[in-house]
């Protein structure tokens, strides 16, 4: 089994809804940060990668047909080369609304963590945001840069920019599958995220 869909969007751009959507469309299991948090072996493998160990992608994605969200979204450049047949999906929302959501969810989890090996600190805070995740202007610039890099790197015919609210139609067209009768999933709202981490 190899990856068929690669997500290149940051966390808090609808990645958990996309994870559920891809699963419903037959592209699951889908790798997401929730998988790392739920499985000790996943946590061990991805923490080793964040520390700089040489990646074994087939091991990191063993059993998965797609990936979205961090940690994998940080490695989209490598993944699009390793899985040349995979379609790419850039989940997107406006930079300002992304920051508003990130500031209320992932950022407090990072700031509140004392585990320096956690992916929130070792990968997201340090590598994605250069050690400055709390700097709004800097974080938004990094977000914009990632979007630009994806648009400038991934061939247009391979890429779908999926904005919050776009739903099934563009996604199913991109993946060549029928549109389900069920509503497009809506998961992991700010309130749900905060409740799960007891950040209320």
Defining traits:
alpha/beta; single chain; 48% helix; 200 residues; globular; 11 helices
Estimated share of beta-strand residues = 5-15%
| Termini separation | 40 Å
Categorize the overall geometry: globular
Largest sheet: 5 strands, parallel
The number of helical segments is 11
Helical/strand content category: alpha/beta
CATH topology: Rossmann fold
How many E strands? 5
The CATH architecture assignment turns out to be: 3-Layer(aba) Sandwich
Return Rg in Å: 16 Å
Strand order of the largest sheet: 2-3-1-4-5
Mean pLDDT: 93
Which residue ranges are poorly predicted, with pLDDT under 50 across at least 5 consecutive positions? none
Order of helices and strands: EHEHHHEHEHHHHEHH
CATH H-level name... which superfamily? P-loop containing nucleotide triphosphate hydrolases
| Proportion of residues in helical segments | 40-55%
CATH class: Alpha Beta
Number of domains: 1
Give a structural overview:
This protein is α/β, with parallel strands linked by helices and 200 residues long. It has a single domain (5-196), classed as P-loop containing nucleotide triphosphate hydrolases (Rossmann fold, 3-Layer(aba) Sandwich). The chain is 48% helix and 9% strand. The chain has helices spanning 15-24, 33-38, 40-50, 57-60, 76-82, 95-104, 106-111, 119-128, 136-153, 168-175, 190-196, and strands at 5-7, 30-31, 66-67, 87-92, 159-163. A five-stranded parallel beta sheet has the order 2-3-1-4-5, with helices on both faces. It is globular. The N and C termini lie far apart (40 Å). The relative contact order is 0.19. The model has no long low-confidence stretch (mean pLDDT 93).
